[in-house]
């Protein structure tokens, strides 16, 4: 049984429509009025020859299926393929139309079967090209730039990171205070000063790294189309929030903290192979055209990509 984390419903809608000569729809209406209520259900695949009927409900338009100019609803009925049942209202006060396009329960399975039947699903080890579909099952990481910027409180993180070292340093100071032998005490004090300097340098270095990380995340958030990514072996896959079944923060809480031991399956389309991760020369006459390479360089500097990795547009991500 699949536990879907991500599903690009726009892509799946397109796939179903092209393979079924139309998109299955589920359309429900909910109308409120002084005396009674009315609900309608219409289902079907495609429009062709049809019979039209009109009644007054106010101006409504659903591209390809329904259109009601100036308060007249046009219902298109296609014998044999498109059926319709209606209950009309009297003394209508207000109406609310709720339209939901639902995928068939087996829509993703249909697409996977299509990939298998056509032998289109490649593995990342097959050296895929841009435009190829891939299906990969492996461990993964979840990254969300906006969330990371929120939690990167530098002073607090440094305090947490060096808490044990500070405790050891405090313990060492107490031990030195209790030493009676002056020569031994001088030796231990010299040792203490050395440790304090090492700790100070380590904190300074860590703070610089955090500051760079914050700047990098802020820069990437401004120019990349999304803040959320899935990382797998040689794959970076951008996630659109509207197709996620859970919020990025929930996924990070469940599966964050490094590479998860749980494996996930990714089905997607390769859009690009990363061939360069070095910072380009921005002083050249072609600097304007080099900015895409700057993004790769920054992503590489924060250990998110390497040369030879692939950018994959995700279609579905799920656990099994």
Any key phrases for this structure?
single chain, 320 residues, alpha+beta, 3 domains, eight-stranded mixed sheet, four-stranded antiparallel sheet, 8 helices, 16 strands, elongated
How does the SSE layout of this entry go?
Layout: E1 3-7, H1 9-20, E2 26-33, E3 38-44, E4 51-56, E5 60-62, E6 66-68, E7 72-77, E8 82-85, E9 92-100, H2 107-117, E10 121-122, E11 133-138, E12 141-144, H3 145-151, H4 154-161, H5 163-177, H6 182-223, E13 228-232, E14 235-239, H7 248-255, E15 264-273, H8 291-301, E16 310-319
Parallel strand pairs: 10-11, 14-16
Antiparallel strand pairs: 1-16, 2-3, 2-9, 3-8, 4-7, 5-6, 11-15, 12-13, 13-14, 15-16
Helix pairs in contact: 3-6, 5-6
Describe the structure concisely for a colleague.
With 320 residues, this protein is α+β, with helices and mostly antiparallel strands.
Describe the model:
Residues 162-209 form a coiled coil. Keywords: Coiled coil. With 320 residues, this protein is α+β, with helices and mostly antiparallel strands. It has 3 domains: 25-100, no CATH class; 107-147 and 226-319; 148-223. Helix content is 36%, strand content 29%. Strands 1, 10, 11, 12, 13, 14, 15 and 16 form an 8-stranded mixed β-sheet that branches. It has a 4-stranded antiparallel β-sheet with strand order 8-3-2-9, with no helix packed on it. Strand 5 (60-62) and strand 6 form a beta hairpin. The longest helix has 42 residues, at 182-223. The protein starts with a strand and ends with a strand.
């Amino acid at each position: 049984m699949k536990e879907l984390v991500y599903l690009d419903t726009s892509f799946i809608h397109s796939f179903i429509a092209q393979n079924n000569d139309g998109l299955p729809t589920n359309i429900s209406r909910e109308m409120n009025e002084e005396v009674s209520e009315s609900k309608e259900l219409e289902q079907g695949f495609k429009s062709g020859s049809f019979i039209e009927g009109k009644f007054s409900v106010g101006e409504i338009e659903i591209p390809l299926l329904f259109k009601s100019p100036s308060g007249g609803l046009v219902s298109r009925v296609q014998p044999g393929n498109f059926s319709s049942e209606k209950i009309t209202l009297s003394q209508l006060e207000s109406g609310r139309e709720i339209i939901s396009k639902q995928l068939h329960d087996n829509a993703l399975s249909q697409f996977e079967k299509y990939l298998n039947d056509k032998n289109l699903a490649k593995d990342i080890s097959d050296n895929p090209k841009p435009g190829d579909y891939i299906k990969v099952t492996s461990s993964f990481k979840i990254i969300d730039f906006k969330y990371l910027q929120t939690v990167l409180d530098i002073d607090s993180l440094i305090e947490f990171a060096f808490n044990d070292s500070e405790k050891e340093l405090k313990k060492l100071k107490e031990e030195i205070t209790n030493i009676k032998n002056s020569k031994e005490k001088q030796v231990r004090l010299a040792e203490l000063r050395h440790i304090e300097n090492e700790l100070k340098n380590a904190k300074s270095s860590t703070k610089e790294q955090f500051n760079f990380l914050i700047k990098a995340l802020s820069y990437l958030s401004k120019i990349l189309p999304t803040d959320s990514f899935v990382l797998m072996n040689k794959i970076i896959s951008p996630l659109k929030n509207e197709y996620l079944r859970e919020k990025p923060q929930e996924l990070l809480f469940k599966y964050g903290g490094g590479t998860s031991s749980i494996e996930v399956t990714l089905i997607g389309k390769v859009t690009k192979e990363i061939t360069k991760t070095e910072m380009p020369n921005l002083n050249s006459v072609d600097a304007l055209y080099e900015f895409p390479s700057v993004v790769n360089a920054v992503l590489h500097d924060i250990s998110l990509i390497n040369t030879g990795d692939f950018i994959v547009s995700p279609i579905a991500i799920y656990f099994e």
